[in-house]
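Worked example
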Amino acid sequence: MQVDNFNFLLQQAQTVRENAYVPYSQFAVGAAIQTDSGTVFTGCNVENASYGLTNCAERSAVFRMIASGERKIRAIAVIADAPRPIAPCGACRQVLSEFGSENTIVLLANVAGERLQTTLGELLPYAFVKEDLNG
């Protein structure tokens, strides 16, 4: 799978991270998705006083992608100020698997410059997918 520019994708994730609304955790996360068409969609985490209503950066980016009419993720970059490159939570991995594939490229990073490249299949082996619903 071809990704146009990892540095650009990561920079977009870093830029949108600055818009995160995180008054409770102070843990700002940014995500940038590149679709098969090459379009980039970004998202940041948005917290809520009712913690269960908080939305992660990765899902925010996916929802923007869907609202814009795109459906296929080629790659995603995720960044946060953490001791190691940050990975999507389990819920985000499941949502990403709906619109990506096991070969979707995932670039994990922290603001210190550390990076780790993996795939969605490595992050979520044996993902539950729509084909599983067909019995």
DSSP finds four helices and five strands in the chain. The chain has a mean pLDDT of 95. The radius of gyration is 14 Å.
